[in-house]
Amino acid sequence: MANKKKLVYGILFFIPVMFFFFWLLRPAFLGQLGGTFKPREVPEPYIVLKDFLYNQKIDFSTLWVPQKQRFGFYSSSQPWLSLGDWVEDNKCLKPFCSLKITNFDREHFNCYPNEKCYPADASFLANPNSLTELNKLKVKYVIIPYDSEGEIFLYERIYDANARKKLEEFIDSIPWFKKLTVTDKIAIYEVP
Questions:
Q1: Are 152 and 133 in the same domain?
Q2: Per-residue pLDDT tens over the stretch 42-70
């Protein structure tokens, strides 16, 4: 008889605890979690870019300036390279370090003192010798991403569309890059 009482009390305790547990997890089951757990859809421009790159059946690399966006496409035959891996304010690795153009510094692009100056980082692209290095790396396209999540072009931790605009205007001014119109939000340049 004592064992039956313990079993009944155990069940009476277990049922509310499980009900409370499932009530706490309800947002997870209904897809109502935000932040890190919020499901994200791939933006349409990145689907168009993926189709454009995937339909080319040759091996090449893409150079993402200043860095690859989370939805950017790559494959084993079409790897991505990120400019941020080579060039930043306080680091510059070979082969691009020696190709930087000193006239294109922070002051030339009117960058704020504590702002990341993306055009100055990419100044080596204006050097004609950079084409040789890009061809060695099999880079066929230079891509400026659409920052759909507001993670790349930041000024004081807030998305700054002007930073992307400065970078795109700079690369537009380089005569040997041909700008392609694949999608309106992602700037794609063909490397000769």
A1: yes
A2: 889 989 998 998 888 888 999 998 888 88
Residue 37 has pLDDT above 80, yes or no: no
Structure tokens at 179: 């700008």
Are 141 and 65 within one domain? yes
Classify 11 as helix, strand or coil. Answer: helix
- Return d(Cα 167, Cα 77) in angstroms, integer: 28
- Of 155, 171, 45, 79, the C-alpha closest to 120 is 171
Which residues are CB-neighbours of 191 under 8 A, at least 6 positions away?
A: 63, 131, 134, 135, 139, 140, 141, 142, 177
Token output for 27: 């947002």
My answer on whether 174 and 108 are in the same domain is yes
Same domain, 30 and 54: no
- State the pLDDT at residue 178: 92
Q: Which of 87, 70, 85 is nearest to 147 (CA)?
A: 70
State the Cα–Cα distance between residues 45 and 186, nearest whole angstrom: 7
Domain carrying residue 22 = 2-37
